[in-house]
Design brief:
The protein is an alpha/beta fold and 472 residues long. It contains 14 helices and 19 strands. Helix 7 links the parallel strand 7 and strand 8. The chain is globular.
Length: 472
């Protein structure tokens, strides 16, 4: 049998004491090197390049902003070189402790900061650290511009939640679902038949206003915006050979309804925007299995600034044309964003997603109930009607928890509901932006807790005025 150096030394220790000493010395050296290399035995003062970066991040996290703001590594600096707090709406001062009493409640934006407290609790497991040489190439090592691990995590999350079929489907990454809107319209409109008119891009009112804005901006010989899908359902017989591309948003932005396609027929294709089809916004009744489905990190994890979305596509030709569009438009999605998305999705997948989705649902459900309670005392305003539904993910009936309140002004004289709200210090998004009657206004429930608290306060005051008038 072969003998190790130590065995030989032990057997010949009396005759060769120098061999034994050599063996012991060698083992001590190897053990020392192992311990120094092991992260379990390395002291903080022995960390190399990561030490400075970690200290910098910790310093930013420790800046006190009174709970009404945050300090960020890329934020402004004061005269002494320290980071300046980035204050929430209606707060000011060096530490964001100064409330601005005359400030309006800004609930126009869909900025999903309601999930910020969740990620603060997960600050360790969700953090990433990048070296200066991280992914400098246009492509990953295998030549693709997509992270294979991120794609696997996306497929796994959809499987866990049960909100979309991904088996046998292709996945396209984009800069949020916003870039994928036009990529999908382009892919479904191209190549057009010879001498054919541009495809008509439509969506049922109330529709997400960005569909119209982007279609008009990128208008070409392939497609053009043509408004409400319902109006074309009535008039379609007058244009029998016209091609249609319909946006179907489910749950809908602005009213949270679970929409279905309006138009049918051989010359019609659909793009299903499922940005809000997650358990914190709606009950998951079945896995979506549409030809083109759009999702985004923005409404899943709340990381709107990372600008990463994905499309799940059935047809290989449509997939390839969407990939070509993204490649020509921006070449790829930032590898830094893909790494961050992978880290965040791995955290979201912990305990089969129960932590993030329960936190998100309870938060949104609470906000909806508080708003509903206020409006229930009013005859001047009304909210959209949403019913409880059985959620396969939670395995129980879930009450409504929409991202937005779709408010209608009921008085005859209140013809512009956004104006009525603005006069009361509430900045919402006007109904006309969604192709709807100006008697409607959208109020975002997604923003930071400070924004929602101020909305609640302003709306209570507005309804209280109505009650006071009724007692006179």
């Amino acid at each position: 049998m072969n003998k190790g150096l130590g065995d030989m030394a032990a057997e010949g220790g009396r005759e060769h004491p120098s061999l034994l000493l050599c063996s012991l010395s060698l083992n001590l050296i190897l053990a020392s090197l192992f311990l120094r290399a092991s992260p379990f035995f390395r002291r903080d003062d022995e960390l190399t390049w990561s030490r400075e970066a970690a200290a910098e991040a910790e310093a930013a996290a420790m800046v006190s902003c009174s709970g009404h703001g945050r300090a960020f590594l890329d934020g402004d600096l004061s005269e002494d070189g320290s980071l300046v707090c980035d204050c929430n709406s209606c707060y000011a001062g060096a530490d964001c402790s100064e409330f601005l009493p005359d400030c309006a409640a800004e609930v126009n934006s869909g900025d999903p900061l309601f999930l910020e407290p969740f990620w603060m609790k997960k600050r360790g497991s969700s953090a990433i650290m990048l070296t200066g040489w991280h992914r400098m190439s246009y492509s990953f090592g295998h030549g693709s511009r997509k992270s294979a691990r991120l794609e696997r995590a996306i497929r796994e999350l959809h499987k866990v939640v049960g909100n979309a079929v991904t088996d046998g489907r292709f996945i396209v990454f984009g800069h949020g679902s916003t870039q994928l809107f036009t990529a999908a319209v382009h892919a479904l409109s191209c190549p057009p038949p010879s001498h054919a008119s541009p495809a008509k891009v439509v969506s049922a009112v109330p529709y997400y206003g960005a569909y119209q804005l982007q279609t008009d901006l990128f208008k070409s010989g392939e497609f053009e915006w043509q408004g409400d899908a319902y109006s074309w359902k009535i008039n379609r017989s007058s244009v029998p050979n016209t091609r249609f591309v319909e946006f179907v948003t489910s749950p809908n932005n602005p009213d949270g309804q679970l929409n279905r396609a309006v138009l049918k027929g051989p010359n019609t294709t659909t793009i299903h925007d499922h940005a809000y089809y997650w358990p914190h916004f709606t009950a998951i009744s079945e896995p979506a299995d549409d030809d083109v489905m759009l999702f985004t990190m923005s409404k899943l994890t709340g990381h709107a600034g990372s600008r990463l979305g994905w499309a799940i596509v059935k047809d290989k030709g449509v997939f390839q044309r969407m990939m070509d569009y993204v490649d020509l438009n921006t070449l790829s999605v930032s590898h830094d964003s893909q790494l961050r998305a992978l880290k965040l999705l791995n955290v979201a997948l912990e305990k089969n997603g129960s932590e993030i989705f329960r936190f998100g649902y309870e938060n949104m459900r609470s906000r909806w109930l508080r708003l509903e309670r206020i409006v229930s005392h009013s005859e001047r305003f009304s909210l959209q009607r949403l019913s409880p539904l059985y959620c396969n993910y939670f395995q129980r009936v879930s009450g409504p928890s929409p991202a937005y309140a779709w408010v209608r002004c009921e008085r005859e004289e209140d013809r512009d509901c956004a104006k009525v709200m603005a006069e009361a210090g509430i900045i919402g998004r006007a109904g006309i932006v969604f192709g709807a009657d100006p008697r409607y206004v959208r109020l975002s429930l997604l923003r930071a807790q400070d924004n929602f608290d101020l909305l609640e306060h302003k709306l209570q005051a507005l309804v209280a005025q109505e009650e006071y008038v009724n007692t006179i």
